[in-house]
């Protein structure tokens, strides 16, 4: 079975630009945004928890006060009868909380259940006027459970039920309708003002949540851009350093060797003199060193990319290599993007891959493809040579250099090979 080995980009070190704070890094803003969102989530959770436990508590208080004050407020027998609707509305309240969590506010299930709950509140208030204490939770409940016209209707009915209890029940409503109407108006005014403030607060919370989400999205975008800039800076720095080294070698070592060769050529010795053979060997050695130096300079700064596109340079190099080594090579760059971000790296990968094929693979055909894959550029080089076992065959220096080049560009490098199954090299580079 072919095996795969992959090299991943280096992790940022403590002193690395990608791993250290830089000017404009919005880490503190991200922390503040997360703290704001967490605080608002805690507030919403606390509000829901209070309402879940406050309502049953007010139900017990309203019935207890009705029982204690029954001789003055209403008949004790009616207070006893009020236990039935009180138990029913508490049961419906539990159903409401579950339906709210499952179906959401304003759903048909929640709306119908709340209507039944409100009907039981009306029955309990008729039997025990002090049920108006419990009915007060209808103001926040109308916002929690309902939406639109249903919420407005429930809000108004809550004011009517509270006024009915505050006025002393049905007998007083019949005998003093003006008092009842005044209490309804007061309840609507006070509760309406409270509702308006709560609605304004909800809008502010929603606006903060929206701003927090936008900020977090911006932070993610900035972080991605920062990583991309770091990768590009590394690649640019590596390319500049290679160019500098190539220039230094050309200006010092290469020029020095040229000077040595010219000095040796200028020595006027007779062909029969004994020292002539040594001078000839020195000349040959100097010329070989000069050739190696020039090859090193070309490896550091690819001249094939000057004045032409990287894909055209690769195609030209592939054709020349195939002609020299008598190997069938196909190159497919039809799916490649028009602009290649890491042209020098891509060219060197193709060069080194073909060099490995010539030295080790004994292949008859080689397939090379460059294609775009989302935001990545993928290079594949596959041959039908003899392959090798990565577990028992130490990778050559060329493979290590290829992996390091890809790492410097912020990409991934992989090898798939097995004895007798050829070799497939894949490099993925960011665009």
From TrEMBL:
Protein's recorded name: Oxygen sensor histidine kinase NreB
Record keywords, A-Z: 4Fe-4S, ATP-binding, Coiled coil, Cytoplasm, Iron, Iron-sulfur, Kinase, Membrane, Metal-binding, Nucleotide-binding, Phosphoprotein, Transferase, Transmembrane, Transmembrane helix, Two-component regulatory system
Region (Disordered) location: 1-37
Histidine kinase domain residues: 210-431
Annotated signal peptide: none
Segments traversing the membrane: 49-69, 78-96, 116-137, 149-166, 172-194
Annotated GO MF terms: 4 iron, 4 sulfur cluster binding; ATP binding; metal ion binding; phosphorelay sensor kinase activity; protein dimerization activity
Pfam families associated with the record: HATPase_c (PF02518), HisKA_3 (PF07730)
PROSITE patterns: HIS_KIN
Coiled-coil positions: 194-228
InterPro entries in alphabetical order: HATPase_C_sf, HATPase_dom, His_kinase_dom, Sensor_HK_TwoCompSys, Sig_transdc_His_kin-like_C, Sig_transdc_His_kin_sub3_dim/P
Catalyzed chemical reaction(s): ATP + protein L-histidine = ADP + protein N-phospho-L-histidine
Species whose genome carries this gene: Kineosphaera limosa NBRC 100340
Gene Ontology, cellular component aspect: cytoplasm; membrane
Subcellular location: Cytoplasm
């Amino acid at each position: 079975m072919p095996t795969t080995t992959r090299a991943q980009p280096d992790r940022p070190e403590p002193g690395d630009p990608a791993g250290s704070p830089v000017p404009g890094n919005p880490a503190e803003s991200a922390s503040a945004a997360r703290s704001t969102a967490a605080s608002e989530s805690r507030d919403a959770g606390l509000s829901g928890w209070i309402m879940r436990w406050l309502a049953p508590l007010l139900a017990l208080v309203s019935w207890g006060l009705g029982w204690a004050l029954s001789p003055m407020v209403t008949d004790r027998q009616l207070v006893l009868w009020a236990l039935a609707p009180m138990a029913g509305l508490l049961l419906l309240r539990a159903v409401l909380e579950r339906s709210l969590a499952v179906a959401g506010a304003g759903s048909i299930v929640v709306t119908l259940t709340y209507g039944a709950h409100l009907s039981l509140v009306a029955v309990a208030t008729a039997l025990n006027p002090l049920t108006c204490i419990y009915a007060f939770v209808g103001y926040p409940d109308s916002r929690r459970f309902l939406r639109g016209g249903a919420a407005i209707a429930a809000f108004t009915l809550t004011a009517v039920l509270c006024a009915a209890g505050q006025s002393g029940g049905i007998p007083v409503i019949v005998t003093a309708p003006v008092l009842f109407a005044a209490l309804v108006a007061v309840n609507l005014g006070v509760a309406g003002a409270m509702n308006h403030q709560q609605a304004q607060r909800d809008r502010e919370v929603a606006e903060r949540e929206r701003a927090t989400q936008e900020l977090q999205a911006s932070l993610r975008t900035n972080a991605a851009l920062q990583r991309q800039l770091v990768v590009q800076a590394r690649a640019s720095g590596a390319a500049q350093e290679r160019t500098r080294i190539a220039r230094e070698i050309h200006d010092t070592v290469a020029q020095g060797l040229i000077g040595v060769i010219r000095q040796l050529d200028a020595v006027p010795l007779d062909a029969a003199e004994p020292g002539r053979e040594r001078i000839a060997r020195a000349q040959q050695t100097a010329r070989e060193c000069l050739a190696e130096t020039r090859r090193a300079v070309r490896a550091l700064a690819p001249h094939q990319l000057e004045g032409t596109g990287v894909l055209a340079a690769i195609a030209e190099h592939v054709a020349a290599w195939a002609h020299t080594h008598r190997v069938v090579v196909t190159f497919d760059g039809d799916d490649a993007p028009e602009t290649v971000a890491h042209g020098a790296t891509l060219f060197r990968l193709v060069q080194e891959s073909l060099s490995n094929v010539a030295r080790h693979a004994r292949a008859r055909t080689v397939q090379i493809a460059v294609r775009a894959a989302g935001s990545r550029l993928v290079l594949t080089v596959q041959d039908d040579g003899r392959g090798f076992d990565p577990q028992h065959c130490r990778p050559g220096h060329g493979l290590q250099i290829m992996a390091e080049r890809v790492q410097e560009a912020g990409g991934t490098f992989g090898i798939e090979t097995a004895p007798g199954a050829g070799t497939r090299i894949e490099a993925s580079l960011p665009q």
